[in-house]
Amino acid sequence: EPTVRTELMEQIPPIAIFLHESRPKFPTAFFEYVMPIVVRYLTDVNNQVRKAGQEALLILLEQDLVAQSDIENKVCPILLDLSAPDSDDEYKVEAVNIICKMASMLSRTTVEHLLLPRFCELCSDGKLFQVRKICAANFGDICNAVGQEATERLLIPKFFELCSDSVWGMRKACAECFMAVSYTTSPEVRRSKLSPLFISLISDTCRWVRQAAFQSLGPFISTFANPSSAGLYIREDGTLSIRPSAQDVNSNSCQPSSNITLMSSSASAA
Q1: 47, 7 contact by CB (below 8 A)
Q2: Domain of 59, in residue numbers
Q3: Which terms does the record give in the GO molecular function aspect (predicted)?
Q4: What is the pLDDT of residues 179-233, one digit of tens each?
């Protein structure tokens, strides 16, 4: 019964945590018995079971309970098979979604060598716009996961493609994550490539794309600032924040810095 398998998947994370805490008594139980079940259920015929398996996998990765060898040799090959060009549409959409979500939890080397090539292929998937939209919505997270060099070499060309996609929802998703993409690139790429691209979004024929671009304008501009002098930085959750400079921290609290006050107002307006 699918409901039994779904319930089982929901119990996997607490079982894994227990086995991890009791490793001296059960040194190989998780890797021999539990992990194979999670991997197998990623391809279950029932979508609710697959969804429960995906959620369990993400929790295990977040808790750092899965060995690097299992990620590379068991999990990634399954996801690559499910997201292959000839894969079933429903499986492919689910696979690209889980790839995007787990990218931030894996090592940069694993993401760049195993998952990034497939992600780039999926960005150009001409069959399913849902696949391209998931890629666009998570583009900033992938850039952050692989770093500046891979972003500029492999991802920026794909970002240009998505920003000119015929489906307006794709262009809107790109506008919404523009700051995160910009933050990962060098000042030169930001100025010479991303600025003209952003202008095209802010002048888009669809008002929903233009609205999303205008909402991202302030955050995008902030990526041009020097963090050491402006105090602007990106938190781990991708939000823009302000770090007071040492001079402001040491100054008299009765005489607040006009620079910080101005930035706070600008950030609020953005």
Answers
A1: no
A2: 1-66
A3: protein phosphatase regulator activity
A4: 999 999 999 999 999 999 999 999 999 999 999 999 999 999 988 876 554 455 5
* DSSP category for residue 262: H
What end-to-end distance do the CA atoms of the chain give, in Å? 51
**What is the domain count for the chain?**
1
Q: Left if phi > 0, otherwise alpha if psi is -120 to 50, otherwise beta: which for 226?
A: beta
pLDDT tens column, 21-56: 888 888 888 888 999 999 999 999 999 999 999 999
In a domain, 71, yes or no: no
Q: Which contacts of 73-81 are long-range, i.e. CB under 8 A and separated by 24 or more positions?
A: 74/35, 74/36, 74/39, 75/39, 75/42, 75/102, 76/110, 76/114, 76/115, 78/39, 78/42, 78/43, 79/42, 79/115, 79/118, 80/114, 80/115, 80/118
**Which residue is associated with the tokens 């609205």?**
211
Q: Is residue 47 part of a domain?
A: yes
Q: Residue 244, SS3?
A: coil
Contacts of 34 (CB under 8 A, 6+ apart): 12, 15, 16, 19
Residue 27 in domain: yes
Burial grade of 198 (CB within 10 A; 0-12, 13-18, 19 or more): buried
The answer as to whether 40 is a domain residue is: yes
Residue pointed to by tokens 């060009």? 85
